[in-house]
Specification:
By secondary structure, this protein is α+β, with helices and mostly antiparallel strands. 37% of the residues lie in helices and 18% in strands. Strands 3, 4, 5, 8, 10, 11, 12, 13, 15 and 16 form a ten-stranded antiparallel β-sheet that branches. A two-stranded antiparallel ribbon has the order 1-2. The protein has a two-stranded antiparallel sheet with strand order 6-7. The longest helix is centred in the N-terminal third of the chain and has 54 residues.
Amino acid sequence: MGRLRPFLYGCCLLIMLVASCVVMLMLTRVTPLLDAWWEKIRTVAAETAEEEVDYFDWVTYPYLPGDVVLSDQLKEMAPEYGFTEYDIQAMIAGAARYGIRWEDVVAIQINAQWDEWYVDMFILSISIAKFLDEHGYNDEPPPCPEPTAVPPSVTPEPGGCIPINPRYEAIKAMNPAGGEEWLYRVLATSDFWAGPLHTAEIDAIEPEDLFDLFVIYMDLLSYQVHGYYDVLVIVDGQPVIISDPNAPAIPYPGEIEGFFVHPFPGSWITGYDFGDPVYNEKGELIRAHHPGIDLGGIGRDPVYAAHDGQIIYAGWMNSGSLWISGIVVAIKGTYPDGTPVCTLYGHGEKGSLRVGVGDPVSAGDQLMIADDTGVSSGDHLHFDLRFGDGTYCGQSVDPKPYID
């Protein structure tokens, strides 16, 4: 036993030395990640606090469309004008979030005649309301200048100062080409809907104690840190998702016939559409806007390149800021107008890849077989179309108008 004890001590020291080396190695790798993570938390912490304060300061601030209680009158009106009850709830919730008249958001939605492929009314309504708010909708009208004194012998010019109406100017900014005709249409529709809409009520969340406020704050902070709060903006009359709120919005490229081919022929949208809010199995919001579309209904069929370009990713990817997972392929090319274009294809079958990074591809080349790898609940293709600068071309746009 006397000889064994030094041996055991030696083994313990060796293990401690190895463990120390491992810990040091891990720290050298983990510390930069922790620093970056902390910096991100520190950056969004104040924004999250402001968002929570805004929510609980505004008595009529609906957190989600479900917080809006419709009257029987609105429930009867909705189908008569092509709306679901959810649509009405969503437009009220989106308008109230930015202090916009509910009837103005409804009127803009009706008169703008957005493409039918845009699905979620709540996100669209938030986008409309935010646009109006950023264009001075809630500003105070500028005062008229003091009248200039004129000599008694000079006849004053007829008429007077008509103050600029910030509400009108913001509405016109949404459709500059529409001019006064667009404004008058919106105002007339708004007047019609004002009475019925304000029969609705807001049943907002009321925390019972400070712990509820803390839980909600941590929930909002989690969404912010994980990048689930993308920004949706209106560009050239169409909705575009921007992952970086500070990124300038590029022009929304027009549809050029013959450039794209369908990546999954015969399929249809069987899961999330572009812009849909994404919820987990508990019903909790985990991403404000779903980039791309989920195509399925035809099983494990071949997936094809939607356009010419070069493979910039081919392999396994965990769902992250790109919100795509499993076996993933990404193609980068150039749109005919010179704009960088990327397409991403997710949930492919393991072992089915036919391309590798650096390979040139042409529209219609087979990439892989569709499957349900990664974060998925059935065989389908997650297809994401992006325009702009950056490794993966930055901004997601709705792909349906381009591939239909």
